[in-house]
Amino acid sequence: MRSIRIFLLSRRRLLARSLTLALLGLLATLSTACSDKNATQAVVPEVYFAEVVQRSVPIYMEIVGQTQGSQDVDIRARVEGFLDTINFVEGAYVHTGDLLYQIDPKPLQAALAQAKANLATSQARLDQATVTVNRMKPLAAQQAVSLQELDNAMATQNAAIAQVDAARAATDKAELDLGYTRITSPIDGIVGITEVKAGNLVGSGESTLLTTVSKVDPIIFRGGISEADYLKLARSKESRMASHAGAPIGAELILADGSIFPQPGSLEAIERAVDPTTGTLSVQIAFPNPERLLRPGQYGRVRFASEIRNDALLVLQRAVQELQDRFNVFVVDADNKVSLRTVKVGPRVGDLWVIDEGLHPGERVVVEGLQRLRDGMTVAAAPVAAPATTPADPAATDKVEY
Fold first, then answer.
1. Which CATH class is domain 105-180?
2. pLDDT, tens digit, for every residue of 24-69?
């Protein structure tokens, strides 16, 4: 009997403990479910959107190239001789007619004196032959001398005339050669570093290069553009001419340190043919350079408006996601639900991106909070501040990429 009581008591205790554990487990499960439900209801992604805007924007093209003088003149020795003096400061600005080099003139002065003496001798012979002919003509008419003698005298006179002409030409050449000993600047510009020093023999068998003078105001910028960019540029020029707006295409120069050259330039010329080795055409742009800040050979980037995109649709660049050559954006509808949409993008203008297809003016595009979004999700949407960059301002516009 005692054993039965002990057994029943143990069973009651075991049953009570099991019920307690079951109740505790049920309470924990209910608490966890409520917490998950509350957490699920509380997690609503916050995103910021910007509306698709529509406006006309200039599309800028950027090319890399190098400057060169509007005139780059090689200064060469045109006569042979020893270099006496160098009469300029290397790298300085020189004017037309400034003396740059002086070649020893003494040998050429002697050659000029000899040529003048030969000319005087030939002139004397011509005078003598002319006198002889003038005397023999009346005698030949009276048959006092033979016609053969008169013909010989006239032939001698003609030979003397030819000798005078040759001597005069030699004299002129000697004067020119003597003048070439003074080497002056043919243009206003910056003179380079001299290639020879005083005492060197120059012009021996060839026209020795002495230095180079470059006209730098205006200065020329040369760069290459692809065939596709050329077509855009050519169509832009044709449209401007058709609209009777024949103003030259303006350009700005970005220097190697990132600063913008203060003087605006203008597109002057495009090469007549495509370079078959590179598939590009050379473009020439002129920039005023009154302060002579730019020198030939400097590298830089030139940016100019190649076209005007009318009524373009624009979104912030950070709103566009690229994945395997596909461009996507998240659009927020009136019920704050997001939908993933594939778009076709155009050029980039500042911090904006031109959208060619896939969006409409006024639609709301997510620009912040993209990482947690899924198609069809409900979000808490708020507008983002308007961009500070003005697409029409070339100074605030980044490179346009096609």
1. mainly alpha
2. 666 556 555 555 544 445 477 888 889 999 998 888 888 999 999 9
